[in-house]
Design a protein that fits this description.
transmembrane helix (chains A, B, C, D), Ion transporter (chains A, B, C, D), 272 residues, mainly alpha, homotetramer, Helix Hairpins
Chain lengths: 272, 272, 272, 272
């Protein structure tokens, strides 16, 4: 095989494996997406006792097929990538590696069945596939909105953690062991369960004073839940706005999408 | 009966059955709405043991009256429709059919009482009636907002499903059978119950590590609940906006509120 | 007492009782607010068994003092009002009457202690007092936002009721009596508890199929909770906007509150 | 030591202790932040029975180190402050004092372990440290949004309290002692647990009428949760907006985005 034809092969593989603007590339992505979904399904089903009893050999065979496929795919990615090491240490590169490594480890170590869970991260690969489609733009808007909100969210989380620690300590003193508030960490766990409105009910206040404090925490939590929602709404509105076309003459955002004239200066944006 | 008079009869029935801009049409819709509500009430009450014991014969009679009425109505719709087959295979046409079919099936098959539930879809017919009123516009705004959000919501749901699967698998390893985390699907069910802040408490973590992981999941869920709210708020604001002032020249909605030029035809709306 | 002096007395009482722009009027409102709060506190405490055992005579005395005070106040309102009947049949007039009627009924009928609960509506009178203060404007913005959202909310509630009925019926068939889904109304109650994310856990699915359906309902409920929030946010933003000052020259809303020049046409709004 | 050199020392301490724009100041803040976190961790761990059994002497030593450090720090702050009394009675001054006082009290009074919880307020000091960084701006936006919403939130909370009291009283009458609704306060506690969608399930309705009322409360709560979210979203959008473009002539924020004239001084910002 000559160097040019080898180069051409690598380029062809690259186009199929990394991109999705050709028929073959789209097919590859679709097959991979299904393999990921099926491999997770097989791990999930293996954990069901009644299923494991009846179909364990079939699950094992299926898992080795998935492992082989993912190993082969990883090899092709490393081979065809222009900068292999950059791919290997990228976020998706590491996830691709973790998608099949635990399966090989399970041969050497009997207890490696616990590591199988890492394989669930394969699901995240779906995003890489989606990244190549129109979902990318929407994902970027969401990411941009969350990034712009990060300081507000840190301030918010610090307040929540402080509140939960103080209320947790107070409840530990008020309620005590009888009600299930056996330690401050346990009380903090209860306070988080309450403030997030999850409310399992595995621990709940039994004394009048504890119930009053719990009621105050719930009403506060009620108001607090409004804050992250407000933050994300505002940033999402801004990120959506910023992704909009602007008038080349006056820089006013163009409304609605695909408008023919600028609403501020009347400049014609596209021919009728 | 001559052909023209038959044609006139079909047109009259069409106006009463399909439209609601005449007195008779509005009365028909109102009677139908009440029949639907009463028929669902009768199915619901039949399921209550104490009620079934005392009033079963009355319920049965009532149900057959409803079934006859809905069958008759379906016949009238097919007869009067200009394109009968198009109606039969439309969304509302199928719901109209499913509204009485299970009742007839229950004569042939003893176990058909399970199919009676399909009759609950009759409630959706309320929307068709509402569609003819001023609710239509509001419903369209909601529908448009949800449609515009669909890609963002798919990205969001994929993230949630990935998160729930990974956390579910981790909790299965950490907690194990004693705490009720008997399989990964069971753990995923618990993770969904937790992240959506429902929190039944039928399964809840018992180990310190499990409680820490659950706390992290709750706080994440707390932040995540903000995302769909933000998405729908932003799109709803846009959809509401789009239903505003229209250009007197080309009927395009005017953006933004108080814009000086129409964004579609460039007509000056207000003097500078 | 002459007619003019009687008229003057009625006017003075009116100013004190119905308005709060004088010292005496404000004092009257404040005393009334405290009487309402104390009377509700006494009803609430009476229901606590340990408290009733020790302090019943005191509570009874206190309640008769409150009843006398509210009766007297009602008399003054009817006497001083310009259109007594209009007051009597107004919303607040009826609440004022219901604030003391049950107390008198409890003399005639032994079981009238059940009617005492109506007295809790006295709390709503707080709004009438607040209405006369700066809270009025904020309350009107909230009311306007909710009123503008009413059709959207009706469409939304109809969807939720339909969904809850259909899911309730399905869960009744899938889960059955063993899991606590004893009838369709019971299942609908469970579906409401789930979709609103309350999640008591008194009834929860036990079968795999039931858990899958419950998971779907929870995720849907997750998305659905976004809709009313979005609706209210949008309308609240609009109502807040509409309560803003507009430029007399170009009708553009004035930003920010108390701005000196219009941001659109530069017209001077207030002297520097 | 001369007066000028003492003055210079005080100024140097002030710069390190109160400010964070020097290397030493930033290091001081960082060390303090870690001391606060470690001291809270030690209080939290002391409450865990298994941990207390094994490591109590070490915890005690650690706590005395923290107490000494915080006492020293308090002394330095009082010594270096230009207006010592103003600092002592400020919010953070009081929290600094409460951070070590309970530890000394525990020598005199055996039961002072209950007062140790006040030490958890030390976590709030994190905000003072954060205040000196870029988080300050975000915190101010959140604070400004919450402040602007305060009347709306009071109106909202009054409505919730009225609703919860009336529903609580009704449920007490309907359900009674058997279902756990032992008094009106207990029923109000249940109503708060329900309306905030926490839903522990320690108390839940058992009668059909009670379940219907509970369902109504949940659906209302569903709509009500939208109100504070909407309020905060709207105010947050306004507060975020206010932190935007400023007029080059008078430094007033420019409204709305892209406005042509400054709303304060009338300066033309962009050509028409």
């Amino acid at each position: 095989m000559k160097k040019t034809s080898r180069h051409r092969l690598r380029t062809r593989i690259y186009v199929i494996v990394f991109r999705s603007d050709t028929r073959a590339g789209r097919l590859f992505d679709l097959v991979l997406l299904w393999l990921i979904i099926l491999s997770i399904l097989s791990v999930v089903l293996e954990s069901v006792a009644s299923f494991r009893a009846g179909y364990l050999p079939y699950i094992r065979v299926a898992e080795w097929i998935f492992t082989t496929a993912f190993t082969l795919e990883y090899g092709l990615r490393v081979y065809s990538s222009h900068r292999p090491w950059r791919y290997v240490f990228s976020f998706y590169g590491l996830i691709d590696l973790l998608a099949f490594i635990p399966a090989y480890l399970s041969i050497l170590f009997a207890g490696a069945q616990y590591l199988v869970v890492i394989r669930a991260f394969r699901l995240l690969r779906v995003f890489r596939i989606l990244k190549l489609t129109r979902f990318s733009n929407e994902g970027n808007i969401l990411k941009s909105a969350l990034k712009a909100s990060r300081y507000k969210i840190i301030v918010f989380l610090t307040t929540v953690i402080t509140l939960v620690t103080i209320i947790g300590a107070l409840m530990y003193i008020i309620e005590g062991d009888e009600s299930g508030f056996t330690s401050i960490p346990m009380s903090i766990y209860w306070a988080i369960v309450t403030i997030t409105t999850v409310g399992y009910g595995d621990v709940s206040p039994q004394t009048p004073l504890g119930r009053i404090l719990a009621s105050i925490l719930m009403v506060i939590g009620y108001g607090i839940i409004a804050v992250p929602t407000g933050i994300v709404s505002v940033e999402l509105a801004r990120a959506t706005d910023e992704a909009k076309e602007k008038c080349p003459a006056c820089q006013t955002p163009v409304y609605p999408r695909g408008a023919r004239f600028c609403s501020n200066c009347g400049k014609e944006l596209r021919a009728g």
